[in-house]
Design goal:
mainly beta; Immunoglobulin-like; 2 domains; 5-stranded mixed β-sheet; 4-stranded antiparallel β-sheet; 17 strands; 50% strand; elongated
Length: 223
């Protein structure tokens, strides 16, 4: 059974498995580039894999397959080593947990690497403060919401934070969604359909920091 490598405090590990078949002398190693990031859905743990021949020369264009335990999301399910014989894999997670990420050389049994990575508890850096500027407009007219992003530590506004909108398809949302120098984004939205709809906004670099607002458009009245 392949060994599971738990990275030491310096966040590096090396795990190789050699194929005893003389026709196939490849082996794979894994180096931990980043570990213990927050489980916020955006921060990335990362691994760099290298594939070698019997002379310890790295081999380009080798197909690799990846998998992980737990709730982690891989940046790729498969990949190919570059001209330096290496491939970099990243993982994100929204759950605080330890996972085992595995890499194997396609077509070669036993040429694999298994490394333990940890995702630490999520501790939000930012908070979204909302002011509804306009609500209850007629369909096809504008409603508006102001979003202020502040630093949790001191309450100061934060410029340059990108926001992501999740809304029904028929509602238009702004294209410029980066907070200005005052930490503010003003979102002007239009719905051609009357009704009350959920407007969800999250911070791109901190996806678990979310705000939900229900905004209403009323039916147009005929003259």
């Amino acid at each position: 059974m392949p060994d599971i490598i738990i990275p030491p405090d310096d966040h590096s590990s090396h795990n190789s498995r050699f194929n005893e078949d003389a026709r196939v002398s490849e082996n794979i190693s894994g180096e931990v580039l980043q570990n213990n990031v927050q489980a916020n859905g955006a921060a990335q743990n990362s691994m760099r894999y290298s594939v070698y021949d019997a002379r310890r020369t790295r081999i380009p264009n080798v197909q690799l397959d990846f998998k992980t335990t737990g709730s982690a999301v891989l940046s790729a399910q498969e990949g190919q080593t570059n001209q330096q014989g290496q491939f970099t894999l990243t993982l994100t997670n929204r759950i605080q947990e330890g996972v085992v990420v595995s890499a194997s050389v396609r077509g070669l049994v036993g040429i694999d690497n298994h490394t333990y990575l940890n995702f630490s508890p999520f501790s939000p850096q930012y908070r979204i403060v909302v002011t509804v500027l306009t609500d209850g407009s007629m369909a096809s007219n504008l409603n508006a919401i102001q979003y202020l992003v502040i630093n949790v530590a001191d309450g100061s506004p934060v410029a340059g934070i990108r926001l992501a909108f999740d809304v029904p398809n028929h509602i238009s949302t702004p294209t410029n969604v980066v907070t200005n120098n005052e930490g503010i984004v003003t979102a002007v939205m239009v719905s051609n359909i009357p009704g009350t709809f959920r407007i969800t906004v999250s911070i791109v670099t901190e996806p678990l920091t979310v705000n939900n607002e229900d905004i209403t458009w009323i039916p147009r009245t005929s003259l």
